[in-house]
Amino acid sequence: MARLVHAVAGRPVAASASPLLFLLTVARLEEAGVEGIALEHSRALRIEATTMEGVFEQMTEPPLAKGGLHDAVQTRLVQSPRPRSAATSSFHAKEGRWLSLTSPLKHLIGDWDCVDDAHALLSVNALRLQGDQVRSAGTDGAGVLAVARLAGCGPNGGAILRMRGGGGAARSVAHAWVNAGGRVHLIEGRRPLTPALPESALAGSAEQAALGIDFDGEGGALNASKHLIPAYQNKAVHAEGSLDETLIDGRWMLVAQHLEAWRILWAPELQAMLPSILDLMEDLVAVEALLDGR
């Protein structure tokens, strides 16, 4: 049985939902019948750091004791079991040491083997450690695209994303949106978006946008049909996790990003067995309520 260790690293990470998402995903894969993977042998960490120095060391000696998150995840599976998959799949690696990076670490680039364009965009947010080798990827853009399509406001047909911000997440999202056939209207924020988007992909300020995202958090109106709030712990907004309303809770983005990291970097061989974004979001909301005593 593989020993899996996942950590979210950055500052602050005390309230991050990434450890819970990792344990939920492992548990659902085990429940579905995936061989070689088990909640019992999986650990989730939070590493407060502003540099990568020391982060890798903390991944080599994780605590052996299980915490309260394991118990909450197990309770969720008992309360809401899902049928075993008819398909069969196995996790073949002897171990998994995986990292989710948040600010300020996601803007750093090491001597890593990148599986996508995240290095060029300075938007790495997922790492896979294999001996001395480090593989990396960025999942912000793919996560937003997946959520937008579920919410009916995707980039198809040249639909517009109106966005404020120029950080790593903004860069990843803007370029992914354009690569998927959409257009972007950029509102000046704290920093410019680099690398710049092609002129043919830019939209005007008067055009109605399908989706608006304010990565700088300034709170101004974005003239969009729907708005994604890029704040992952936004429990006061749409705690039920609805995609039907005008405001989309930022936890949708985190759920989609997490699954994308499994799909393209951590365990691509298991992508057909992964829970859906809808199912994992439902699990997350339920376990957060359980942990909060609601």
Task: Describe it.
The protein is built from eight helices and eleven strands. A six-stranded mixed sheet has the order 2-1-3-5-6-4. Strands 8-7-9-10-11 form a five-stranded parallel sheet. The chain is α/β, with parallel strands linked by helices and 294 residues long. Helix 1 (18-32) crosses helix 7 and helix 1 (18-32) packs across helix 8 (277-291). The protein has helices at residues 18-32, 55-60, 68-79, 118-121, 140-150, 168-179, 251-266, 277-291; strands spanning 3-10, 42-48, 95-101, 113-114, 126-130, 133-137, 160-164, 183-187, 209-214, 224-228, 247-248. The mean pLDDT is 91.
Q: Could you name the key traits of this structure?
A:
294 residues, alpha/beta, five-stranded parallel beta sheet, 8 helices, 19% strand
Q: Which helices and strands, and how do they pair?
A:
Layout: E1 3-10, H1 18-32, E2 42-48, H2 55-60, H3 68-79, E3 95-101, E4 113-114, H4 118-121, E5 126-130, E6 133-137, H5 140-150, E7 160-164, H6 168-179, E8 183-187, E9 209-214, E10 224-228, E11 247-248, H7 251-266, H8 277-291
Parallel strand pairs: 1-2, 1-3, 4-6, 7-8, 7-9, 9-10, 10-11
Antiparallel strand pairs: 3-5, 5-6
Helix pairs in contact: 1-3, 1-7, 1-8, 3-8, 5-6, 5-7
